[in-house]
Amino acid sequence: MEAELALIASLRKAVAALPDDLVLRLHLAGRLLAAGLRAEAVGQLAAVLRADPACDAALTMLAGLDLAGSARAAVPSGADSPAAPADEEPGSSPGADAGSFDWSSAEADLGDVLPPMFVTPDGRADGRADGRADAAQPGMAAGAGRPVLRLADVAGLAEVKARLEAAFLAPLRNPELRRLYGKSLRGGLLLYGPPGCGKTFIARAVAGEVGAHFLTVSLADIADMYAGQSERNVRELFETARGAAPCVLFLDEVDAIGQKRSQLRSTTMRSAVNQLLLELDAVSGGNDGVFVLAATNHPWDVDGALRRPGRLDRTLLVLPPDGPAREAVFRFHLSGRPVAGIELGALASRTDGYSAADIAHVCESAAEIALLDAARSGAVRMIRQDDLVAAAGQVRPSLAGWFESARNVALFANEGGDYDDLADYLRQRRLL
Q1: 323-394: same fold as 151-317?
Q2: Right CATH number for 323-394 from 1.10.8.60, 1.20.120.1220, 3.90.170.10, 3.30.565.10?
C-alpha cells in the first residue's frame, strides 16, 4: 500500500508539471480509483473530459464506478494494472470512500462535460437537491437509537404531515399552550395503509421531529413459546422505552402483535395482548416522554380494545406517494447510480398508483437492464430514460390486492366511520 501511495504522489507531481498530458491524467485516475480515492479520481477524469469530451477511457471509468460497486475501475489501455483496491485514504477512517460511488455529489464537477443526471421536460438540467422519501427502507432494529430523519425528509404526503402536526407534534412542542387549552397527550397514533408506502419511515421522522429515541417493536420481539415469557417481553420493552425517554415506541405490524383476541387460538398471545393493553394504559396514565405510534396494513384485524380512548385512539391513513413524492423516490434511488437525462416528471406520471417499494423495484430493474446490456456489448453505459420506462412496464403495481380488501371494509365494515378517509380516497380513485 505504501508503494502504491508513493507512486500516486509521483504521478500527482508529474500531472502538475504536465497538465495537458491526458494519458498521464488517465493513468493517475486509474491508480486513484484502484486505491479507493475516487473523489480525487473524478476530478482528474473531469479534467480529461473537458479537454476531450469523447474520451472513451474516461467515460468508461466514470460509468464503471457504480456498476463495479467497489473501488475497482478500468485502467486506460497501455497503463499498468492497478494494485489491489484499498478502503482507506491517508488520514481518513477505513471505508470512508469505499462502496457505491455517489454520482450526485460529483455532478457539480462533471456538469460541464457530461449530460445532467436529471432533466426537465424541455431538456434543461434539473439541479434540485436530492429528494428524500421512503423507499421501503428497513426499520431500525429493536433498541433505542437517535434517528436523523425529519418530516421534511418525507416527500409529499402534505395531508399526513398536517394531521401529525395537529394531533401530535404541535401540542408536544408547545407545553404552555397545551396546558392552556387542556390538550392531552394521552393515547397513541395508529398509521395504516397499503404496504411499502412509508409508515415506518414516517414514524422515524416523527421521532426526529421531537428529538426522541426510536424503539421499534415487532412480533418477533414479543412472541415466546414459554408461558408468561411473552408478557414479560412486553413489560420489558415498555420499561426500556421509559428508561430512554423521550422515546417514540413504534409497534410495527401491530395487527400481528395485537390481533383480535377472538381470533387467537394461542393462550400465550392472548395474554401478551392483555399485557400490551395494560402497558398502554400505564403510558397514558402518567409516564411522561413515551409516545406510542403503531403501524399496520390491516387495521380491521387489530383488537378493538387497542383502539379505545387513551390507547391507539387516533388513526392516520398513509396512502401511496403522490406525484411530487414519486419524483422524490425516483431521485433518491437514482442519485447513487450512473444516470443521464432522466425526466423525473414523466416517470412519476407513468407510475401513478405505485408504492415507494414498487418504484425502488423499477429503479433496480432499470439498473439491471443497463448492466446486462453493458455485459453483452462490453461497453459500460449510463442508465437512460428508456431503461426506466421499460422497467416501469415490467414492474406492475403491487397494491391491487390490498385495495380490494380495503374496498370491502369501506363498504361493509365502516359503521363507526373509522374508515371514512379511506372511503373518500377510494371514491376519488373510482374504486368504490
Answers
A1: no
A2: 1.10.8.60
What CATH fold (topology level) applies to the domain 151-317?
Rossmann fold (3.40.50)
What's CA 221's distance to the chain center, in Å?
Answer: 23
Query: Distance (Å, rounded) from C-alpha 140 to C-alpha 147?
Result: 9
Residue 345 contacts by C-beta under 8 Å, 6 or more apart in sequence? 120, 121, 323, 327
Q: How far apart are CA 266 and CA 245, in angstroms?
A: 33
The whole-angstrom distance between residue 237's C-alpha and the CA centroid of its chain comes to 26
What's the pLDDT tens digit per position in 14-50?
888 888 888 999 999 888 888 888 778 888 887 887 7
Q: What is the pLDDT of residues 207-236, one digit of tens each?
A: 888 787 888 888 878 877 677 788 888 888
Cα gap 39→71, rounded to integer Å: 11
User: Catalytic residue numbers?
Assistant: 404
Domain boundaries, the chain: 2-81, 151-317, 323-394
Task: Give bridge partners of residue 214 from the DSSP assignment.
Answer: 145, 248
